[in-house]
Amino acid sequence: xxxxxxxxxxxxxxxxxxxxxxxxxxxxxxxxxxxxxxxxxxxxxxxxxxxxxxxxxxxxxxxxxxxxxxxxxxxxxxxxxxxxxxxxxxxxxxxxxxxxxxxxxxxxxxxxxxxxxxxxxxxxxxxxxxxxxxxxxxxxxxxxxxxxxxxxxxxxxxxxxxxxxxxxxxxxxxxxxxxxxxxxxxxxxxxxxxxxxxxxxxxxxxxxxxxxxxxxxxxxxxxxxxxxxxxxxxxxxxxxxxxxxxxxxxxxxxxxxxxxxxxxxxxxxxxxxxxxxxxxxxxxxxxxxxxxxxxx
Length: 296
Description:
By secondary structure, the protein is α/β, with parallel strands linked by helices. 36% of the residues lie in helices and 13% in strands.
């Protein structure tokens, strides 16, 4: 089991995704970490054992530039950390710069593959372009990104249709880039900004079956589970098929400050499993897992 932590760099965002806590009209305190602030957050995570960190940021072109991400990535690599990115879709050239800086992977959720619903949920901002987002992982692959992470946001559309579409998308990527690692995540909407109710909620049993279907379809892929889900459900899925899990997560920039206190004001989404990394590691070790803290 690979353990990782997200490091949120910026909550500024130009997009208007109806389901997201960072959506542009949302009245929240916003923060953008400069390089030194990001490295201080990374050192806190490094002190807790993490060597694999997922850099997450809203889409705000004047702040979240390729140069900014490359600078942070290179500094993390110098400190023995393997960074991946979960950011807005980039050009092939931008992805190549991130790879050159040391990025080991990219996560890019299509959210839903239903074009009509995608347009409904993304009424404004650069994310409104369905095709630009859909082709993002192909551009990352062309830039020699080592790991390509796919995902759908469960609750937006028919989960079975979206899962099938994602499997087809991944199969096309595997055929085009046979040497790359594939990864999948299935985040569920549990709580969203006021006024948005997920029209297609997914129950626990369906959720587990969807992960099992991915394991059958892609036996060697990484299956990722975040702290959106409860400790009990994470335990079940870890014993079934999950290979990568986060711990002690914060979804707000600067949230690892003050000796581990995680601010909730301005978070992208609430964390359900709030156990510390040490507690999660102890649980996994007791369950017989071989723990990995780095992707290498």
